[in-house]
Amino acid sequence: MPLFWRISLFNSVVLIAATALLLGPVTVSTPVLLTEAAILTVGLVVILVANVVLLRIGLGPLRQLARAMTTTDLLRPRVRPEVDGDGEIAELITTFNTMLDRLEAERALSAARTLSAQESERHRVAQELYDEVGQTLAAVLLDLKRVADQAPDEVREQLSQVQETTRASLDEIRRIARRLLPGVLEELGLSSALRSLSDEFTGPSLTVRHDLAAGLPALGDNADLVLYRVAQEGLTNAARHSGARLVTLTLERAGDAVELRVRDDGRGFDGSGDTAEGAGIRGMRERALLIGADLSVGPVRGGGTEVRLTVPVGDRVADRVG
Fold it and tell me: How many Cβ atoms are within 10 Å of 310's Cβ, its own excluded?
């Protein structure tokens, strides 16, 4: 029976019973006797308690639904509210769950298109850096070398310094292009790409250690790209924001999934206040959704932050990037 009719029926029964008592043989003395006052008080309390209990039981699923509404985040899928109650309440919860499914699907599709456009733009920019800027600087280096060979000794040293600066700029452009377009990922696979990525971030102030298990199951090009980009973002955050000295990059099998972990020994991250999630972490969450993976970012015992991406191996959500 719908909640509206249940409440109406209960209140109607109470009113009919009260009216029957008033019209029946039951009388109230004037002044009211103590026993009569006690009976009336008990009856009123029983009616109020019964009404409160009925409303609490009937409206309980609505409180659960309200909590779900205030905590829902499309980037963090969680268990849907359980369909409880009868009639309109059950229909409302079912409609809410259906709406969440539709919104998550639409967001995933929109994110897939956005990330696909980003990857295409990165590919274009990387190619231009390689083909245009890189070749131009390479030609400048050759011209400088030819001029330096013919220049007098007092000018040759200055030209040599210009050559070194140009060569360093060319190396930096190539490094940026490799980050934009991880060619090693397509050519040699995920493990080799992650090793190369670890080497790129290793420097005087930061050490990146990697532990990459062998014989991992194939996940598909899109999943490999998501794993690579999440590792890249995790290392970037550790290098720029955490003040870490050591970062450990791990890729291993975890039951029916492949798990990527990027752990640093920096200041830590708790997802609130000044360390609230930024565009980088939200981008990682969107990428994780595209392949049906779970992403967690948070502090670890002993200090530092860990980024954990778990990609199911079995019945995964279809890849939608690209």
Answer: 18
Amino acid (1-letter code) at residue 79: V
Q: How far is CA 219 from CA 269, 304, 315, 317, in A?
A: 29, 29, 11, 11
Q: Where are the alpha helices (H) located in 202-265, listed in sequence order?
A: 221-237
In the chain, how many H helices and how many E strands? 9, 5
> Please, is 194 exposed, middle or buried when counting C-beta atoms within 10 Å of its C-beta (0-12, 13-18, 19+)?
buried
Tokens 């967690």 locate to 296
Task: Select from 258, 264, 276 the least CA-distant residue to 313.
Answer: 258
Question: How many Cβ atoms sit within 10 Å of the Cβ of residue 7?
Answer: 15
C-alpha to C-alpha distance for 169 and 302, rounded to whole angstroms: 39
**Alpha helices, H only, 151-181:** 153-180
Task: Report which listed range, 66-70, 94-98, 107-111, 125-129, is most confident.
Answer: 94-98
Using alpha carbons, list the distances in angstroms from residue 303 to 95, 207, 240. 43, 17, 17
| Cβ(244)–Cβ(238) below 8 Å | yes
Q: Which two tokens stand for residue 174?
A: 């190539």
CA dihedral angle for residue 139, residue 140, residue 144, residue 145, rounded to 10 degrees: -30
pLDDT value at position 263?
Answer: 92
- Whole-angstrom Cα distance, residue 83 to residue 102? 17
When the pLDDT of each residue in the chain is averaged and rounded to a whole number, the result is 78
pLDDT surpasses 80 at 187: no
